[in-house]
Inverse folding.
């Protein structure tokens, strides 16, 4: 017999984005409520704030707008699901590191 446990979270449970630098291992936590598309936020994710290693840029492409779009859409969907009388609740399945370690 096998047993499997799944973990789900609702959009309202998502509070922050966490960026972990691959170079120096520092962490930056950004609240989902923050508007990453605002002019004053431009280029802030391009480099690690500690070691200045490149983050959201690769071969001349900038990915901060994509991250900003993701957080904006996440907030919009969360708000829509909270205010619209839809006939379902949306949740996301997340991986369980303990389960992944056990399968290795």
């Amino acid at each position: 017999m096998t047993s499997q446990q799944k973990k789900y979270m609702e959009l309202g449970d998502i509070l922050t984005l966490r960026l972990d630098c691959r170079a120096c291992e520092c962490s930056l936590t950004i609240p989902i409520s923050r508007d990453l598309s605002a002019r004053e936020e431009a280029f802030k994710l391009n480099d690690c704030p500690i070691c200045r290693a490149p983050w959201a840029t690769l071969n001349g492409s900038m990915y901060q707008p994509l991250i900003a779009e993701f957080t904006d859409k996440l907030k919009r969907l969360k708000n829509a699901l909270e205010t619209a009388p839809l006939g379902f609740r949306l949740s996301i399945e997340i991986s369980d590191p303990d389960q992944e370690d056990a399968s290795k």
